[in-house]
Amino acid sequence: MLDELRAALTGGQPLVDGPLDGWEKRAAIGVPTSGSTGEPKTVLLDAAALTTSAEATHERLGGPGTWLLALPTGHIAGMQVLVRSVVAGTTPGVLDMSKGFRAMGFALASRPVLAQPGRHYTALVPTQLSRLVAGEGPGLEALRQFDGVLIGGAATPPKLLQQARALGVQVVTTYGMSETAGGCVYDGVPLTGVTVRTDEVIEISGPVLALGYRGGEPFGEWFRTGDLGRLRDGRLEVLGRADDVIVTGGEKVPPVLVERALATVDGVLEACVVGVPDDEWGQVVAAAVVTRGVTPAVDELKAVVAEQVGRAAAPKLVRFVSELPLRGPGKVDRTAVGESFR
Length: 342
Fold this sequence. Notes:
By secondary structure, the chain is α/β, with parallel strands linked by helices. The radius of gyration is 20 Å and the shape is globular. It is built from 10 helices and 21 strands. The mean pLDDT is 93. Strand 6, helix 7 (158-166) and strand 7 (171-177) form a beta-alpha-beta unit.
């Protein structure tokens, strides 16, 4: 696929199924959205957006290097690993995901990458990072040797980030989407050329923006994401999807703040918080919680959330689960979590 991508980036056959019309003909690739917020769409990106994103990534990480592909190329995060490799003039290593993600498989796939001269990078979703950190074996040892480990595709629990960094993993959190050629904000700071603003909802401008959706109108100067966020001292804090906000008894509760609070409790590995319809409150806060080791008391979870976020945010429903359902590149399936409470 690397040769086909290289050709598409230099004016050859675009990596898009079917004919393109009008402004769409400028596209080099088409990437499907995950469909987690509605019907899936095909995002069309030109070569300039893709290569600009790759160059800005290398600038932020300390220079070009050799990449390990550990994500599917049907999503922008995986595709950008290939684009960065083309831009860097290197050949990426590829992790065989046909039997799922395994720490030993990651370690084996990392060896030829780490043997190459220069810098070494990979990109993961939080679930993959969690498994490597928990394994504390060859997978973690390999991960610690990478000069940069991009983490995106979903919110990463602060506790997991702290643990990974304490173990020597060079974690860089990313925020972005197919419409921005992948991650365009690293550790809260926009990449070179990218501008972020927010009126509660995050908007992004810059040379990394996609052309538009196939079959739709081209994008303008600014892309309105639908994610909530706030800027503090020039750093972007993402608060989750605007349409995920829970309105309970007239109070607005961003689920991500509740999830962060739950993650501070000993024994909590990760959590997903959703709103469940309720005749009295309109919606009630419900939390699906994955634990490791000793399971905390429900009352303790509620008390921690009430203290850190507010009484209205304390979950009225709590369910302990072995794992959270996923869709797309490591994204939690909030719809499935919500249905589990009904």
